[in-house]
Amino acid sequence: MAGPTMISKVKAYWAPLILFGLGLFYQLVVLPRSFPPSHYDALGIKPYSSVEQVKEAYEKFSSKWNSGEEIPSTADFLKIQYAYELLTDPLWKRNYDVYGIDEQLHILEKVREQYGEESYSRIDLPLLDATDHSVHAFNVVTSEDFPSIFHDSKPWLIQVYSDGSYLCGQFSGAWKTIAALLEGIANTGMVELGDIRLATHLAERKPIGQIFFRRGLPSLVAFPPGCKSSDCMTRFEGELSVDAVTDWFATAILKLPRIFYYTKESMGKNFLAKTGPHKVKVIFFSKTGERASPFVRQISRNYWAYASFAFVLWREEESSIWWNTFEVESAPAIVFLKDPGVKPVVYYGSFNNSRLSEVMEQNKLQELPQLRSVTSMELGCDARGYSRAGSDTTIWYCVILAGRLSPELNKMRETMRRVQETLLSDDESNAADTDQSLAPAAVAFRNKRLTFAWLDGEAQDRYCSFYLFSETSFETCGARRDMSDVPRLFIVRYKRNTTEDEAKIERKPRNIWDAMQEQEVDPASQLVVRYNGSDEIPQIAKWVSEIIQDGDSKDLPFYRAKTPELVPEDSEPLLTRSAQSLFSKSIGMKQRIRNIMGQCYDYLGDPRIGPALLLAALMSFGTIWLMRGQQRAHPSQSGQPGPSANEDENRPARRKRAKQGSNEGRPPSITDEEPKDAYQMPLLDSDSD
Fold it and tell me: At the top level of its lineage, which domain of life is listed (predicted)?
């Protein structure tokens, strides 16, 4: 019977036994590994002892070794010598005492493998390189100026370093490059570990309150745009290289799109063919194959509505292909592909943030700009806006070529580009050589009162039909019904009534109808004239000039209407959206898992866990023992009914008998049960008087 009894006890006490085993395992195995012997223990002194006490302890060991009183093993000698050299350097000692940083521990392992079991006297001393490893710091942030550095919404990338750190000295060159690449789009700063208050604020903290840097020094922390506290601070946990740091900061902190590399095989089908006709194609040729720098990615996001971007790795064996395709001779270079048939625009050399922004601003539009929702105001082809010449200009013009994407439209776009060149050359030539009939258009074009643009009639169906409403407008506007595509040219004369605009500011609407009427029409009047002539360049230029001359000299009707809205081609930047979604689903999830694992590892070093497990085992053991004792003292609770149970069962029967006995001898009443011989008299159907 001893066997079944023991098994039943084990089953009853399985929970406290498991908790007790876990507590012992934690106290004897896990906790010692989390708190290995310190370098102070190797010298036999108290933690945080002074440098003088460290030297005194080492001299005691040294005197014993020199006198022959004690001959240490190689392993013991290395521990003591390493602890002495580390703890006598003020900066190394500070980093070890406050933050637990010991970045030269690998040297100790290397020396152990090198000398093995040889005599300690053969070991070359000193073990550690005590030369000056000071870091060339710039943009140093202190605890006094830290609260005031967030005066704008720019993000921050901060390096926590130590002057005595060999790794920080190695990283100095890379940090200068990173700061140069982030110039203009982010702020960079450095914090020295000697600023205990600020360094502690930027450090991590274990559950027991100890501050530390999980990946040692240098440590990089970032504050996203608009972040001004440690709650939104993000730590870099990757490889300390220029490419890894800048890519992490641009993707995770700035949420910038990545710009992909293309080969000669994939350039046509994956980039040029998939880029919309309304965008300029920008191609970077790189010799190194490095990722796009953060400022390039920032510019690509700023100009996403105007251009699409690609990278190409330059190879000498492919130079003839790129010359024949884009007329590129060497790298680094940037190519701008604009209208179909237009010669590529090529820039050579390296670009910084300001120069690239300037070049992008010059080339963001096609030679013949497309009239779109994002360009209508800029081009001066919007009745709600103003001329390119400024808000003081009251009359201006916009020549628009409308049509569906087709060879016919491309041919007409080339013609309109030639018209622009004709007017530009006519304006720059001498007065004796110029055709005076083109002078009004040439002067208006020079003064930015005249703009040329083309319109996608299929994408902008309502806008196109508003200006070209006729029986044949389906040949130009809307979806293609047949094989006929007829591009059409028209000019819009805009005029603003400055007197009425000023009065509108001072005059308030008298009622809701006046307010609705003001909102239903555009502030500038519009007069539209369609071109019905040939496709000859001189004839088109002359027609434009005549319209401008009449529009400037004649008193034409002031007619206002409500122009349909232009349909946006892109609802949001595609590359930016994809980059953010990919990051949030893949990199973000990995980062969260890594953080959770790191937190679990930190909790393993909490010395409170072992006693808590042992206390839980004791409490559960006592609870189970008490419950089993109560069951033995009251066996009725184990399944056999006692007197109290029988009494509860008989109580309803006694109550019923008492009720029946109390009714005996009472006269019958209407509340009693119905007698067996009772008879119910039927009532008459009709009512009695």
Answer: Eukaryota
388 contacts: CB under 8 Å, gap ≥ 6: 378, 379, 380, 396, 448, 449, 451
Return the DSSP state at 342. Answer: P
**What does DSSP say about strands 395-403 and 345-348: parallel, antiparallel, or unpaired?**
unpaired
For 383, 388, 389, the CA distances from 498, given in Å and listed in that order, are: 14, 17, 15
Tell me, what DSSP letter sits at residue 140? B
Cβ-based neighbours of 325, under 8 Å, separated by 6 or more: none
Largest CA distance in the chain: 143
CB contact at 8 A, 281 and 308: yes
Backbone angles phi, psi at 395, to 5 degrees: -125, 130
Three-state SS string over 355-390 comes to HHHHHHHHHCCCCCCECCCCCHHHHCCCCCCCECCE
Q: Coil, strand or helix: which one is 561? A: coil
Alpha carbon distances (Å) from 534 to 489, 531, 608: 11, 9, 92
Mean pLDDT, all residues of the chain: 84
CA dihedral 480, 481, 483, 486 (to 10 degrees): -60
Q: How many degrees, rounded to 5, is the angle at CA 134 between CA 130 and CA 135?
A: 145
The 8 Å CB, 24+ separation contacts for 572-579 are 573/257, 573/301, 573/304, 573/305, 574/304, 575/257, 575/258, 575/259, 575/300, 575/301, 575/304, 576/255, 576/256, 576/257, 576/301, 576/304, 578/257, 579/251, 579/255, 579/256, 579/257, 579/258
**Model pTM score:** 0.74
pLDDT tens-digit map of 328-374:
999 999 999 998 889 999 999 999 999 999 999 999 999 999 999 99
Cβ of 627: how many Cβ atoms within 10 Å?
10
Non-local CB neighbours of 612 within 8 Å, separated by 6+ positions: 23
Sign (positive or negative) of CA dihedral 543, 549, 551, 554:
negative
pLDDT, tens digit, 9 for 90 and up, residues 112-129: 888 877 788 888 888 988
